[in-house]
Design a protein that fits this description.
94 residues; mainly beta; Jelly Rolls; 4-stranded antiparallel sheet
């Protein structure tokens, strides 16, 4: 089973959490729109790690690991836009 939703992130000081929509192993995020407009930082699994920079339009997949599932509403990681503004990202749990 798969479920799709959205999450809004911004470029302020605090990374925004990404939560699982259903029990799933993977949560994939990507800025909505044909060609993403902003680079963004991925903090996986939490904000204590050095972030991974993704370019506009590039997706990122959070992975719970073999034999594990994220649970509904569990925070799977964090995103922060590299530039000021608010951006809507699609998230797919599968």
């Amino acid at each position: 089973m798969s479920k799709v939703g959205t999450v809004t992130i911004d470029g302020d000081e605090t990374p925004d959490s990404v939560q699982a929509l259903i029990p799933c192993r993977f949560v994939q995020v990507r800025e909505q729109g044909a060609a993403g407009t902003t680079e963004y930082d991925v903090y996986d699994p939490d904000t204590t790690v050095t972030p991974l920079r993704r370019v506009g339009g590039e997706s990122h997949t959070f992975d719970a690991g073999v034999g594990n599932l994220y649970q509904t509403s569990q925070v799977v990681g964090y995103l922060k836009a590299a530039t000021a503004g608010s951006y809507v990202f699609s998230r797919q749990c599968f």
